[in-house]
Amino acid sequence: MSINKKYSVVAIVATAAVSAYSQADFLGYDADVTTVGDYTVLNVNAVFSSGSDVALNIYETEIGTLDNGGFNHSDTAFGSGGSWAFSSTVDIPGFADSTIDSYVTMGDGGAALDPGFGDGNGSGIPGGAGWYNGNPNNQQTGSAYGGGIEGISGYAVALGQFVFETARANSYIGDPFFSFAGEIGYSDDNGVAFGTGSITWTAVPAPGAMALFGLAGLSARRRRG
To answer: How far apart, in whole angstroms, are the C-alpha atoms of residue 189 and residue 21?
Structure first.
């Protein structure tokens, strides 16, 4: 089992006992999707079967969009192309809007970026980068969750908000536009455990567009008839 060696806040030892119950309480990743103006917003969560599980770190991630166009930032680091740091996410009229800002977190307490993130600025996340609970005493347990695009219900810990222009996704109707994959370390009643998972999101035509497609098809059939 590969473990992010850059994660130094919590000592993680991969023992046979840990491996025996790996992923026992981790149910998978899920996401809630909303539209804010011209943007699509995905809030990704780690979902656990127990409300006492504590999320520790996310590592070995692969997160991106089909067009490799990156994610939108609207935060206090506007002079540096935006930041993935949760601490930069604030509302400043005319400059920053937290509803369309991309960031990573561990629950509602923010997160520390591992060195694989570089300076943490820019629209994309480097392959293999991760983030972690910066304070092990900050108990990032889950809140009751009814499920999102994957329908996984349980106890969810927020992992990040990922924002992109809806028009970009609409150029790839029917193809997975957003993807999130990574490994997770967490603690449960038995100690430290690990899990892995992935999710994708695919844009679908709006109801009005579907109606237009249907009318276009009907018109074509009438012309052929």
So the answer is: 11
pLDDT value of position 72: 98
For residue 42, the tally of other CB atoms under 10 A from its CB is: 21
Q: Is the pTM of this model over 0.70?
A: yes
89-108: b (≥16 Cβ within 10 Å) or e = beeeeeebbeebbbbbbbbe
* Regions of the chain short of the pLDDT cut 70: 1-23, 135-139, 207-225
Q: Are 27 and 157 in contact (CB under 8 A)?
A: no
